[in-house]
Amino acid sequence: MLSQHYKDMCNSASVIRALSVYATERGKEIGYENVFDYTLGNPSVPVPDAFNDAIIDILKTKSSAEAHGYSPNPGNPEVRSIVADSLKRRFGLPYEQKHIFMTSAAASAIAHAVRCVAAPGDEVLTFAPHFPEYYPYINETGAILRTVPAQTEDFQINFEEFEKMMNPKVQAVLINTPNNPTGAAYSAETLKKLAAVLLAKQDEYGHEIFIISDEPYREIVFDNAETPYVSAFYDNTLSCYSFSKSLSIPGERIGYLAVNPKAKDADMIVPMCVQISRGTGHNCPSSVIQQAVGRCIDMTSDLKVYEKNMNILYDELKALGFEVVRPSGTFYIFPRALEDDANAFCEKAKKYDLIMVPSDSFGVKGYFRMAYCIETEKVERSIPVLRRFVEETYR
Fold first, then answer.
1. Contact yes or no for 212/110 (Cβ under 8 A)
2. Going from the N-terminus, what domains does the chain have, and what CATH number goes with each?
3. pLDDT, tens digit, for every residue of 330-387?
4. pLDDT one-digit tens code per residue, 67-123
């Protein structure tokens, strides 16, 4: 008999993916160039030539076993050392190879991190708005995800509500900075306050509380700023990183979990991840791709286009009267809809072939997300369509 649990999950599929499929099908009717698809966070800038060159060189110069064989369960040792050295150099923490576990991108890193620090029935808190897939990432472990209401003025942390929701069952706090869907990055002040709250609660409850820091957009920041590194503010932090966005390689599914060397029992966490992999079937990411990212560790794609696209959209949205917090990074913007029902707003926009994601599944009502990781030319062509939609529907 088929599992009823997973049959039920089929009825709650990703809204983002459903809208992306709609946009693709609509493109078959009118030409995809005429569909302004702001649904999926699929990087649009090219992969660095050096990454492709690295793959070619590995395939040409390595033996078949070196290129295609299993890596050890924690990942390729040389690549783990390269990652540790990069983090140590960039952020000043004493990472070593033993603190790095290679994963199938950030999603896998989060899945391992939660299982390391939370048991079934424990609670994990996160902050609205957040990536909808956090629910299956957490709840499928047996832990329970609870969402702290948003602070919509600037999308920093709503500390008043956060402290109300803290209780002895909370084992971890899952954060995402810069954030999907808002583009907001937590300030140093926010992270200092978060660390202070958690340190006090650790003492009160008599157990560790870990931060699980989801960081796939760490390199996509605007105005020449730098995103504060979460582990620098709080020792019990597990950093979950993906190269999907920084190198434009989401289909390669490569990332890592980095254990703060100062965390409680830090040396136990990577060996625990190895054991977790035995139960989840994760095993090891691609050997070739691990080696390729090792050769390109501090490179990124040319990410400037995202800031250009953001400025075009932000300026136009403001001119049209939308309430919107200016993103600090990522390739998302999160305006308030022009009516309370974001689903109705996005349905009306679809009639103009503007495909955007309503905010309900992100844990906030009345907003919508635009993923502007598309060609700038298409962003510019969408502007008069957006104006016409607003003028004809809401003026």
1. yes
2. 4-47+302-394 (3.90.1150.10), 49-295 (3.40.640.10)
3. 999 999 999 999 999 999 999 999 999 999 999 999 999 999 999 999 999 999 999 9
4. 999 999 999 999 999 999 999 999 999 999 999 999 999 999 999 999 999 999 999
- Give dist(CA 278, CA 159) in Å, integer: 38
Question: Cβ neighbours of residue 8 under 8 Å, at least 6 residues apart?
Answer: none
Query: Which tokens hold the place of 184?
Result: 């907001």
Round to whole Å and give the CA distance between 21 and 74.
35
- CA-derived radius of gyration, the chain: 21
Half-sphere exposure for 339 (CA within 13 Å, toward CB): 13
Q: Letter for the amino acid at 143?
A: A
Cα 103 to Cα 283: distance, rounded to the nearest angstrom: 9
Give whole-number Cα distances, 167 to 43, 140, 146, 310, 337, in Å.
38, 21, 12, 39, 34
Rounded CA-CA distance 106/86 in Å is 18
Query: Which tokens go with 283?
Result: 């095993």
In three state form, how does the secondary structure of the chain look?
CCCHHHHHHHHHCCHHHHHHHHHHHHHHHHCHHHCEECCCCCCCCCCCHHHHHHHHHHHHHCCHHHHHCCCCCCCCHHHHHHHHHHHHHHHCCCCCHHHEEEECHHHHHHHHHHHHHCCCCCEEEEECCCCCCHHHHHHCCCCEEEEECCCCCCCCCCHHHHHHHCCCCEEEEEEECCCCCCCCCCCHHHHHHHHHHHHHHHHHHCCCCEEEEECCCCCCECCCCCCCCHHHCCCCEEEEEECCCCCCCHHHCCEEEEECCCCCCHHHHHHHHHHHHHHHCCCCCCHHHHHHHHHCCCCCCCCHHHHHHHHHHHHHHHHCCCCCCCCCECCEECCECCCCCHHHHHHHHHCCCEECEECHHHCCCCEEEEECCCCHHHHHHHHHHHHHHHHHHHC
Q: What is the pLDDT of residues 218-240, one digit of tens each?
A: 999 999 988 999 999 999 999 99
- What are the structure tokens assigned to 139, written together? 């709840």
Residue 177 to residue 317: CA distance in whole angstroms: 23
Quote the CA–CA distance of 293 and 89 in Å, as a whole number.
17
- Whether 262 has a pLDDT exceeding 90, the answer reads yes
